[in-house]
Amino acid sequence: MALEITNLSKQYNAQKTALSNYSITINKGILGLLGPNGAGKSTLMKLIATISKPTQGSLFLDGTDIVQHPDAIRRVLGYLPQDFGVYPNLNAYEFLEYIAAMKGVGGPGLRKRIDVLLEGVNLTADAKRPIGTYSGGMKQRIGIAQALLNDPKVLIFDEPTVGLDPEERMRFRQLIADLAQDCIIILSSHIVSDIETIADEVAIMQGGKLITKGYQQDIIKQADGQIFEIFLENNNLTEFKNRYKVIDTARQNDRIKTRYISNDAHAAPSSAPVKATLEDAYLFLTQNNA
Ligand SMILES: Nc1ncnc2c1ncn2[C@@H]1O[C@H](COP(=O)(O)OP(=O)(O)OP(=O)(O)O)[C@@H](O)[C@H]1O
């Protein structure tokens, strides 16, 4: 199963091009879309979900043009939009039955499927309560469950971990890891650590463009030799920040351990090179392309 995206552009109006000449091939497994606010992540996901039409370019799923034939993906699609709305008066069962009807999913197995999904997102105990009484994280979890109702082969999750506590994040990871053997799963976040623990491959985007895509270790390699650490006195940090892109600081006794981006030729004296992480690589690559 493969999704082939070629020269995709989306222009919302004369001033706003949200996606520009974007090409990517997405295979089975979990692809994490990383990018700052406004990078075009949601726009890309909406185009794949055929909720929105591209201004230019093509999207093919296993050789079928899904701009011309959106049903080819809709049949096998599970989608959690960023602004997922729920019906406050319905309980979880009623809501999932309603979504199942809209997706044309039914039959004798439906009740069982809903039970399994509610268990999967840890909502069994609250299934009879109106969704309007749920917390933000619980609403997000019912959103995840509805995306899985039709046994999808292409799953799109826009910021799925928003509002989830660490335990629920772990549960989400396990839930989709099992599905990834057999599905294309695309999820977005601007929280690098979420993508780091969930995704096999990562696509970094910025300003509507794809900066890089690959396995995590290959993306991290791109920042090798560019990340340094230095111990600074308290009052030197502000000036240091004017000269270098600081990634992180941590107070250690009376000094500040400062992680920053540079290269060997320009690193500050008394710095030590350190091994890059995905977060470092993300900041390095988006800074270079800003
Ligand atoms: N319907 C629209 N009309 C006009 N501009 C839009 C529309 N939707 C999105 N945009 C703009 O397109 C750009 C890309 O937006 P998009 O929501 O795809 O980014 P994103 O990477 O998902 O951002 P975030 O992380 O904040 O959700 C932004 O500048 C946004 O303001």
From TrEMBL:
SMART domains: AAA. Keywords: ATP-binding, Nucleotide-binding, Transport. Transmembrane segments: none annotated. GO terms for molecular function: ATP binding. InterPro entries: AAA+_ATPase, ABC_transporter-like_ATP-bd, ABC_transporter-like_CS, P-loop_NTPase. Pfam families: ABC_tran. Residues 3-232 form the ABC transporter domain. It comes from the Bacteria. PANTHER family: ABC TRANSPORTER, ATP-BINDING PROTEIN (PTHR43335). Belongs to the ABC transporter superfamily. This is ABC transporter ATP-binding protein. The lineage of its organism: Bacteria, Pseudomonadati, Bacteroidota, Sphingobacteriia, Sphingobacteriales.
